[in-house]
Amino acid sequence: MNSRERVFAAIKGKDFDVYPAITPTSVATLEGMKASNAYFPAAHTHPMQMADLAAVGYEVFGFDSIAPYFSVHLEAAALGAKVDFSDPNTTPFVTQRPMNKIDDFSLPPNFLAKQEFQALLKTISILKSRYKQSVPIIGKVIGPWTLAYNLYGVENLILDTILEPAKTQALITELSSIPLAFALAQFDAGADMITWAEHATSDLVSPQIYERFLFPVHKKAANIIQVHGPLILHICGNVMDRLSLIANTGIKLFHIDSRNPLKEALKIAGSSLILTGAINNPVSLVQGTPYSITQEVIRTFREGISLVSPECALPTNVPTQNLRAITETAHHMNPHTLPPM
């Protein structure tokens, strides 16, 4: 099987030859930048550099996917936030937000024509032309909750869920049209599936807030987007208190953080939701060894995951040998003959 066939077989519950390993979020590393000669900050916004850096995930690290969006800031920058895309060692960050109050936002006409949106669409087209049907291209959109953080501020948004709940809900509804349109445009450009990044973890957002403000958005996203291909919801941190809600959205896959007990999460997900992720970033991939990572990958398969991946966007200092430990372990394992512990 090629990578695309392997990944889609796992998603559809069909037989596959060896375990697939994918990258729903960024696997841009310093070693990857050196291998591709594509560096931040240019690789955040210039299509050819974005494509070349993204391809390292497949060509060098060995993953069964290519994902070319390396931050959570393209949409915010296009919508008026000032973003420092920074240097190879630093994650981009917002330096000035365009919103001062909850009802400041107005959806600009023709927003997909903005350079930041077009850069990713062009990148996906380049990658699709380069790889055809051999490996899945994973696009990415930033959900309305995270987009509101970037445009308005975390504290402001959380406070206004209490002080201005109706206006907050109106903002989230309006912002949700952006990832919906952007996702469909990415499919048109050649994406095979989409990651929807939504930073609505339990330390910031209660299950009740998730159910009121985001559950309807995610359910709508599942209905609209998955006509074109699978949707992967990414939420960092512990989500056990809302995983049953997520499983009821109709979204096909959930990218899970290692802070969630995997066996319990798989029971809650049941047959409704496929889990990917679970390989720890800050300890295992940054500080671990290929041997320790191999053991973690095997344990993850044993607990029931069929589609392994790093739990979140990688720190840029993850060594290549540790990423290759994930993919080489997966690709040397027949799903019917897992070795004993």
From TrEMBL:
Protein name, entry field: MtaA/CmuA family methyltransferase
Per the entry, which co-factors are needed?
A: Zn(2+)
Signal peptide from the UniProt entry: none
Listed A to Z, the keywords are: Metal-binding, Methanogenesis, Methyltransferase, Transferase, Zinc
Asked if the record carries the keyword Isomerase, the reply is no
Picking any one GO biological process from the record gives:
methylation
MF terms in GO: methyltransferase activity
Q: Could you tell me which Gene3D superfamilies the record lists for this protein?
A: 3.20.20.210
* Domain Uroporphyrinogen decarboxylase (URO-D) positions: 3-332
Q: Has UniProt tagged this entry with the keyword Glycosyltransferase? A: no
Report the superkingdom from the record.
Bacteria
Cross-referenced InterPro entries: Methanogen_methyltrans, Mtase_MtaA_CmuA, UROD/MetE-like_sf, Uroporphyrinogen_deCOase
The EC code for this enzyme is 2.1.1.-
UniProt xrefs under PANTHER family = METHYLCOBAMIDE:COM METHYLTRANSFERASE MTBA
